[in-house]
Amino acid sequence: MKKTKLVTLLGAISLLGAIGAGSTFAYLTSTTGTVTNTFTVGNVNFDDDPLTGGLSESKVARDENSNLYVDADGTGEWTVKENKYEDLVAGEVVYKDPTVHMADDSQDAWVFAKIVNENPELTITYASDWVDVTDAYKTAQNLNDIDYKVYAKKDVISKSAHSTIFEEVTVGNNVTEDTTFTDIKVSACAVQAAGFENYTDALAQVSFN
After folding, report:
1. Which first-to-last residue range defines the signal peptide (predicted)?
2. Domain of 126?
């Protein structure tokens, strides 16, 4: 987001009075303090922490008892940028929680996620507060067709807040030993909330890397 410096407005008032006695004048003067109005442009930023970097997820590992992929970090911890899931079987549910993190100094924002390589044999269970806006996004961006999905957070995300896009992926029942999967890739974009009544209104401003 571009920053624009706005001029600083200074206000000062001088009061001048006069009294007279014959031809001799004495001038009474007084000044007020300065009233300063400073304007700065805020930021809409994802967290730039080297660990989370605005978008990260929990490290996963196979549980020794259940043999399922589970959160190895613990609740509320997102420490990696990618996970590898190996030796999957039909019907298996794996833990995956890509989460966006807003910076401490960010303005309120509408947040959008780009999901690349959704696979019919890998069913993603999205969080209830994220909604598929792919068709509306294509209309707002004047795009005929795209090879990815776009989801929007239903509510505004404030500074320092986190929001998990989805938490699990289910392997299809028809996979075989020969089935291969492409990597699911997730990226995010934040648009200032001010000036947009809802996430649909902000879609034309969305831009992904």
Report:
1. 1-26
2. 55-205
